[in-house]
Amino acid sequence: MTQTLEALSRRDETLTSIRGIVHTMKTISAINAVPYERAARSIEAYHRTVRRGLQAFVARTGPIAMPAVEPAESIVVVFGSDHGLCGNYNELLAEKVQSELGPTTAGRAALRVLCVGAQMNDALAGQGLSPESVLLPPASADGIGRLAGSIVTRLDEIGGGEPHHRKVTLAFTQRAGRGQHEPVLMPLLPLGQAFLSELADRPWHSRSLPDYSMPSAELFAALLRSHIFASVFRASAEAMVTENAARLALMQQAEQSVDDRLDEVKGQLRTVRQDDITTELLDVIIGFEALRSSSRKPPPQLSSQDVPPDLKVRPQGRRSGAAALNERRCESRPGRRGGPG
C-alpha cells in the first residue's frame, strides 16, 4: 500500500523522536553503571578486610565450631529492578528463585521472601511467591549502604539476634562473560563449613601474631555482622550494575531497530517525493505540448452558409435590372463621356 508524502513525513518525525529517547536512555544507563561498579569494587576491598579479621580471629582462637542445629526458617533476599526497560531481568531471577528454593522448602516452614523493587515483587507473585516485605532499590550509589543496613536490621529482627538459627540466601543477577549476565543464589547464613575451613587453613603471613582485647563472642558477632553487611552491599551493587548493563544492551538493540526502520522510511519518503516531482514535471510538459500544438493549427475556413446575409457579396456577372438601367442612363448623358479631344 503506497503511503502519502504527509504520512511518511509524520512517521519519519516520530521515529526520529523515538531514536532520541532511546539514545538518551542508553547514555543514562552507561553513566549510571559507573558509580555502581565503583561501589562494588570498594565494598570488595572492605570485605577482604573483614575476612582478614575473621582469619585473625581464627588464628588466635582456633577453628570455629558452628552449632549443629537445623535452621528454623529459610529466608531469601531478592534484588530486582524497579526502573523498567531492562527486558526480562526480573522474570529470569524469579524463575531461578522458584526453581532452586521452592522444592527445597516443600514440607517445611514457608519460604520468607524479602524483595527489593516493586517490579520484582510482581515477578515473584507470578511465580507463586509472596514477599513479606518490599524495599525500595537505591536511586544512586550512595543509597546502597542505606539499603544494606535496612536488610541487615530486618534479618536481625527475623532471627531474634541468633544468626545461626536461620538460613539466609541472597538472590541477585551478576555479570557473566562477554557482556552477559546470569541470576545466582548465594548462601549467606549460616556460615558454611568450607568457608570456615578455608579461614583455618589459610596461613598467617606476618611475624606479629594477631591478638584482641574485647570478648571473643562480641568480636565474632561484630565481624559476622560486617561480613553480612558487606555481602548484602556487594549483592545490591552487583544487581544495579547488571541492571544498567541489561538496559544498555536493550537500548542498543532498540536503537539499531529504530535506525533500520528510519532508513526504510527515508527510502520510501525519497521514492514518494521523486514520484510526486516526476508527476508534476509530466503535467507541465503535457500542458506545454498541448499549448504548442494548438498554436500551429490553421484558422477555420467559413462556408457561404456561415456568412450572414448582409455581408454576402453579389457576383459581378449577375446584375439586377435596375443597376443595368442606371448604368445606361449615365452613359447617355452628355459630358459624362470623356472630355474634348
TrEMBL record:
Residue ranges of the region described as Disordered: 294-341
A GO cellular component annotation in the UniProt record: proton-transporting ATP synthase complex
Transmembrane segments: none
The protein, known as: ATPase
Coiled coil: none
Alphabetical list of CDD domains matching this protein: F1-ATPase_gamma
Function: Produces ATP from ADP in the presence of a proton gradient across the membrane. The gamma chain is believed to be important in regulating ATPase activity and the flow of protons through the CF(0) complex.
Keyword Membrane: yes
Subcellular location: Membrane
Molecular-function annotations in GO: proton-transporting ATP synthase activity, rotational mechanism
Keywords, alphabetical: ATP synthesis, CF(1), Hydrogen ion transport, Ion transport, Membrane, Transport
Record family assignment: Belongs to the ATPase gamma chain family.
Membrane topology classification: Peripheral membrane protein
Keyword Transport among record annotations: yes
Protein source organism: Halomonas aestuarii
